[in-house]
Amino acid sequence: MDLQDIRNVAESLRAEVRKAIVGQDEVVELMLTSLLVGGHVLLEGVPGTAKTLLAHSFAAGVSLQFGRIQFTPDLMPGDMLGTNLFNFQTNSFVLTKGPIFTQLLLADEINRAPPKTQAALLQSMNERAITIDGIDHPLGEEFMVVATQNPIEQQGTYPLPEAQLDRFLFKIILDYPSRDEERQILARHGHSSAMPRLEDFGLNKVVAPCPTSAGQSPGSSCRTR
After folding, report:
1. Nearest-angstrom CA–CA distance, 203 and 196
2. How many other CB atoms sit within 10 Å of the CB of residue 92?
3. Do residues 29 and 184 lie in contact, with contact meaning Cβ atoms separated by under 8 Å?
4. Which domains does the chain have, with CATH numbers?
C-alpha cells in the first residue's frame, strides 16, 4: 500500500467506526497506525467511554478476527493460552487453544489480573507466538493486543510493570465526550435500554481479509474496498 491508499483506508475506517462510536477519531487513527507498524495499544478511560465497543468496531472494519478476555484476579495463564489435554481415543495430547489464538485480542481491564497472568502476554506481544509445554505456537504477524484499564479504581488491581508497558506502542487516554457528543449519543442510543449488537450498526469492512499464512500484516497486503 502507498501513502494514498493508507489515507483512504484511514478515512473509510473512521467513517465506519462513526456508525457505532461518537467521536474518538484520533483514537481510531492511532490504533490503525499501531496495526500498520505491528504495535499494541493500551486504552485507559473511565467506564462508559466505549473502549470495548471501539476495539470491536475497529476489528470489524479492518477484517480482523476479534477475541476478548475479561481479566479477573482469578484468571490463570492457562485460561488465556490454552492447555494440552490427553485424548484417550488417540492416546496422545491435544492442544485446546485458549482465546489468545485470534487476530485482535481485547485484554479487557488488564490490570485486574495477577502479574503471572499479565506476564503470559509478554511473549505473545513481542514474538507473536506463545510456548506451551516447550512447543512454540505462532499467532500470526497480524496479531494485535488492545488492552483496557480503568484509572479510577485501584483496589484489587495489579499495576502494569514497566516491562509490560514497554510492549505497548501507544497508551491512549479516552476522555468523556463533549456536550454535543453526549447529545448525539442520547439521540442515537437513548431509546434503548440494552447495549446494541455490533451487527446492528451495519459496519462494512474497509479492507479485504488477508490470509494468515502470508506472513504479512493486513496493512501491507490487504486490498481497500
Report:
1. 13
2. 9
3. no
4. 3-221 (3.40.50.300)
Count other C-beta atoms under 10 Å from residue 88's C-beta.
6
The single residue listed with the C-alpha cell 485470534 is 102
Residues composing the chain: 225
Among 45-54, 67-76, 112-121, 139-148, the minimum mean pLDDT is found in 45-54
Helix axes 51-61 and 3-17, enclosed angle (nearest 10): 130
Of all residues in the chain, the percent with pLDDT exceeding 90 is: 21
Q: What is the per-residue burial (b if ≥16 Cβ within 10 Å, else e) of 126-155?
A: eebebebeeeeeebbbbbbbbbbbbeeeee
8 Å CB contact between 177 and 185: yes
pLDDT score, position 146? 94
Q: Which helix (H) or strand (E) holds 61?
A: helix 51-61
pLDDT at 169: 92
CA distances from 12 to 107, 186, 206 (A): 26, 25, 6
CB atoms within 10 A of CB 156: 9
Which residues, other chains included, contact 46 with Cβ-Cβ below 8 Å and sequence gap of 6+? 150, 151, 152, 176
Distance from C-alpha of 37 to C-alpha of 27, rounded to nearest angstrom:
16
DSSP 88: T
The larger pLDDT score, comparing residue 12 to residue 110, is at: 110
Nearest by Cα to 64 from 152, 182, 143, 118: 143
Q: So what's the pLDDT on residue 225?
A: 44
